[in-house]
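JOB MANIFEST
job_type = single_chain_structure
chain_count = 1
residues = 101
[input]
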Amino acid sequence: NMQNKKITMDSWVLTSKNQISCDLAGEAAILNVKAGMYYGLDAVGARAWSLIQKPLAVTEIKETLLNEYEVEPERCEQDLLALLNDLAEKGLIEIKIEDRP
């Protein structure tokens, strides 16, 4: 089952078909249509979310966030992986196995 797969820096991710999202003053609100569950993201999370509207490698998301925000690389990596794994668990993003979709 793909949902149990852990996301790593080498993973490719993109937003799931089962969600709709909107921008709330720089933050993001996401609704899992199937589960009827609402999920909110802060500004950095919302930026990551906007990047994965098309498939993207986690390393590329990290690079973009590091360029745009004042954050330690280790902290950025930990927070990003935690966020993405959480989103995957909630069915809001998909993990791609292939190297480059």
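[summary]
The radius of gyration is 13 Å.
The first strand starts at residue 12 and ends at 15.
exit_status = 0
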